[in-house]
């Protein structure tokens, strides 16, 4: 974009906020040898510096510097005047302003909401805080309260499908695990749950007092009261019940759940029932209750459960196929099911609707049910090593991403902005749909204090969503000449209101903040000049959080003209096909890789394997072959340098390629067909690379620059050799032109070597300051492209005939089609291109209707073959031929006689060319009548 004349701002900042650095410094204090070994051996951190890592900021500072040096080594053209960290004083003021602004707009809410939580750190956790960067996800369950018939103690069961209560036949308890009898919420109720469930309940703000423990076995054979239907159901044993799932007590709905269905079958086969204090008289009377039917075939779901059990060949409750059977049945009934008449007032309702109504009924009726949360992607581990839980946070501060109006605006904008790759647009919509309140503060870590509650620190996925705007301001605080630092303490929110929103009176702000009016004005102008962000690039794992919050916050805070224009999502970098990880020992620190291979090689080796959304795959083989290629380019540039060819480059206002173009145009009369062809191919190269880069198909662009064009150069060299033009000055100019354009195209990818080569080529200014090559449409030359294609095919056809006949010819006879055939060809080409007609009969009709081509009816097989010929051509080639009208095949062949004989590798072969119309042609086998335009007939002797 810079080469295209844009003033490109590429800044960089460092995100210090959050808990990971804190966790790392705790590990240093604890002398964790694994971590210290990594610092020492992988990153070569000196001993005394590692000691300083007991202070978290020192870790950040050290790696900040390493990363910055790495970026400089890589040759990123970053505007370092704008560098900042997220714990800088002015940045904190900026974040304070962001939060006060969100609060004014009513988007910060206080309340009780569930969050992922580390019990050790006593902090909410999100993706940045977990091992493996997992975003904690949890679901809202309904805890339905059954009661022991003996003594009214509550047996809570967790379910996502409360509408199935009408089909409950029994409860499942694992006889082998331990349960607790607990007093819940200051003796209000007594519950039986597992120890794990008791812990979870505490984090959901229930007060818990443990009464005593009991073995699951003690419960089996007893009866529970279902207070909703007012019936007694037996408590039965099942091994699939896990202590850490739900409450450890499961309601059994065999008419809905394949697990329950199979567990009942297993129980009936159990020979050892008496050891559980039960017998078949308790089990046999259980009747499976259908409560839903699937619309699909009018069957009750019981038969669907049965079908699924037999389909997946299940014969025991520990069978892994049960997962699949379950998801199939659940999906079917949830999306197509209706409630049966035995569900009372819910009869006939769609299952989805019944689920919500029954949930509301249960939760609004006293003592029937409670809400319960559980991770759906557990275990989630905090970076400190402890397992996380779902915690119901009271009086905590949240950003309300649930806000309907806000969501609506973001949805609309997602339809407008550019998203690359396009496939991700729907994913963004989905994220916006499910986002809810998000905890925005932590008790520990680095960062900015919540402005109205200083016990809390704004967390890392909330203080990093509009930082791009701060790059404008950071330049002014960093650069001494603006002397802004002395006013640091005076700067308040009114400053940011004016700079970023244009609100307020500049005289007042100047007084308030102790800054000159002109400085404030300059910062505001620069903000207007650069903002919005034109292109935001980030990883795919940040779509559900950072990139979505980035949109939400910009849309909430800024005017529409400052909303981001584009989001680009990329993958990560793999090493020889594997994820880089410490345990695989395949991490190479960037700076070391650059020392070993050179920055350009590393850059290209990564880019040439990268496709958007896919991970780039770095391999040493690729790096080596890239190095060879770059060296080849370099050697070529030295040869040109030594030949003193461009000592004559004299006009400092023009770049090398511009001079060459000028020079070539002045001598245009001496250009031959192959010269025009190569210059034409060069325009196509520039066009293709430019288009690939616009949609960030980087791999494709690079492949075209480095490799595809080599094939054209090699072919061009064959053509000039056949004409003995190697010493032709024009040829050299054209080759150097192509080379210089390729180097320009390469320079954004490989800046160092491109600069060196550019200099070798005799250029006096830096390639960084050069212009992106222009496509000259008038230099795209259909005639030279089609005649080149024509010669290549003719040569191939001749070689094939020689191969088939296995005879060595001394003369090749070539017959080019008559002008009558050419007229019909052009007419058919026009019909196909302009009317998209492909049917032979219709095309023939049109030919006959036109008196100029009516004679086509005498040669239907020619018309048929010609239609096939044209349809097999590329659209580009068809357009070329349409523009050309017809090709002078005879003179093209005569121009390339040497080339043809070189290519078929027969020396001293004679080539005779005739037109089909010629009267005294040599045509012993009457081959000429088979000739077609672009496909001459061939006879060998
Ligand atoms: Zn933790």
Describe this structure in words.
The two termini are 59 Å apart. It is globular, with a radius of gyration of 38 Å. It contains 33 helices and 28 strands. Helix 12 packs across helix 18 and helix 24 packs antiparallel against helix 25. Strand 23 and strand 24 form a beta hairpin. The protein has 941 residues and is an alpha+beta fold. The strands form eight sheets. Strands 3, 4, 5, 9, 10, 11 and 14 form a seven-stranded mixed sheet that branches. Bound molecules: zinc ion.
Break the fold down into its secondary structure elements and pairings:
Layout: H1 20-29, H2 33-42, H3 47-52, H4 56-74, H5 89-104, E1 108-118, E2 123-124, E3 138-148, E4 154-159, E5 170-173, E6 178-184, E7 189-194, H6 195-203, E8 208-215, E9 223-226, E10 231-237, E11 249-252, H7 258-269, H8 280-283, E12 292-294, H9 301-311, H10 321-336, E13 337-339, H11 351-364, E14 369-375, E15 389-400, H12 404-416, E16 418-420, H13 424-434, E17 437-439, E18 441-442, E19 449-450, E20 453-458, H14 470-478, H15 493-501, H16 506-513, H17 517-530, E21 536-539, H18 543-557, E22 566-570, E23 573-575, E24 578-579, H19 590-597, H20 599-607, E25 616-618, H21 620-642, H22 656-666, H23 673-694, H24 698-722, H25 729-746, H26 751-760, H27 782-805, E26 811-816, H28 819-835, H29 840-849, H30 860-871, H31 875-884, H32 889-895, H33 897-903, E27 910-915, E28 937-940
Parallel strand pairs: 5-10, 16-22, 21-22, 23-25, 26-27
Antiparallel strand pairs: 1-2, 1-15, 3-4, 3-9, 3-14, 5-11, 6-7, 6-8, 9-10, 12-13, 15-17, 18-20, 19-20, 23-24, 26-28
Helix pairs in contact: 1-4, 9-10, 12-13, 12-18, 13-18, 15-17, 19-20, 20-21, 21-26, 22-25, 23-24, 23-25, 23-27, 24-25, 24-33, 25-26, 27-31, 28-30, 28-31
The structure holds zinc ion.
